[in-house]
Amino acid sequence: MLHRVHVGSTSGGDSCAGHSRARSRAATSPIGGATIPGVRYGSSQRAPAKIVTSIAAAAIMARPASPSRAAPRPATIGAMSGPHLRDFNRIVFFTGAGMSAESGVPTYRGAGGIWKEYDYRRYACQDAFNRDPAAVWEFHNYRRRLVAACAPNLGHRIIARAGQREARVTVVTQNIDGLHALSGSRDILELHGNLWRVRCDTCGVKQQDSHEPREQLRCDGCGGWWRPDIVWFGDFLDDATLHSAKQLISSCDLFVSVGTSAVVYPAAQLPEYARAGKALRVEINPDETPASDLYDVHLRGPATEMLTRLADGDPHLLDPA
Ligand code: APR
């Protein structure tokens, strides 16, 4: 089963190919981001019958009716005694751009978001690359420059250190910046690829590359264009990676979402698997998201502060070095 990236609408279709519809809906988007028609569901998911026009509504419609929705909404946590990372054996951190925001990496949506300034239709989809690969590379070299100037933050380090213990800790990230690996996390599933890897658009060969900027744009083997090995709008996610993420999330006992707007599918579907598997679910985000109802605990604040709270004074996790 292949899964294309798209922003929360709920019908099948194409992504960059549907620009005119996308544009008309984006104007009224509650998140201020781009809207792309074209939802694909995994085989275990119910496919809604129609496209809905609000991103928030779409995200809700994409979820099966759930007992937890009828249950009283858990309170946003202020001062509290738990949960604490040390009390769980199988932990999944599900991270988005907010995870790296305090490192200085811009998020995609909201104030200062990349998609506010740059049109993804010109820079982050295969059609754009086919039209003008040099322009797309210019944008990605700009992003390389931004990320290269950033270092992992305390939140990344807490997650990495939690993984050095007996508990099985997996990072399922939408981020392409590589900061989880840089902070020492080992068990990482990068749903949307990595900015520091390239792939030949013709022969498919891949290459790690930390140059900033990347100047070699033609494959030495076949002469095709190198493209960033990241998942653009309308691209398919790697099936094995997504499958592993679902498995791990289904069987974890603590699921912590950090800094994602929960509007980009199929990643935005993943918390459903944590709910089905009965994990305790924690959402870390200063703001409510369309997925907030899926969580048992809401930690409303920046990632570093809220992960510090989950670490609960544990000196091993909080070592600032
Ligand atoms: N701590 C925690 N969360 C934060 C912080 C912070 N310091 N700052 C911002 N956030 C939250 C915002 O409230 C928002 O909900 O992080 C979220 C960032 O949302 P997006 O910019 O939409 O990023 P993300 O959810 O990762 O986007 C998903 O969209 O364009 C695609 O492929 C791209 O992987 C990306 C996907």
CATH fold node name of the domain at 3-96 and 238-318? Rossmann fold
Q: What small molecules does this complex bind?
A: adenosine-5-diphosphoribose
As a whole number of angstroms, the C-alpha radius of gyration is: 19 Å
Helix content: 25-40%
* Global shape: globular
N-C termini distance:
42 Å
Structural category is alpha/beta
Q: Which runs of at least 5 residues are low in confidence (pLDDT < 50)?
A: 9-15, 17-75
CATH secondary-structure class of the domain at 3-96 and 238-318: Alpha Beta
Count of DSSP E strands?
13
Number of helices: 14
What CATH architecture label of the domain at 3-96 and 238-318 applies?
3-Layer(aba) Sandwich
Q: Helix and strand string, N-terminal first?
A: EEHHHEHHHHHHEHEEEEEHEEHEEHH
Biggest sheet, strands in spatial order? 5-4-3-10-12-13
Description:
- By secondary structure, the chain is α/β, with parallel strands linked by helices.
- It has a domain at 3-96 and 238-318: Rossmann fold, CATH 3.40.50.
- Helices cover 31% and strands 16% of the residues.
- Strands 5-4-3-10-12-13 form a 6-stranded parallel β-sheet, with helices on both faces. Strands 7-6-8 form a 3-stranded antiparallel β-sheet, covered by helices on one side.
- The longest helix is centred in the middle third of the chain and has 16 residues, at 133-148.
- The model is unreliable at 9-15 and 17-75 (pLDDT under 50).
- Bound molecules: adenosine-5-diphosphoribose.
- Residues 96-98, 101-102, 107-110, 113, 174, 192, 259-261, 264, 284-287, 289, 302-303 line the site of adenosine-5-diphosphoribose.
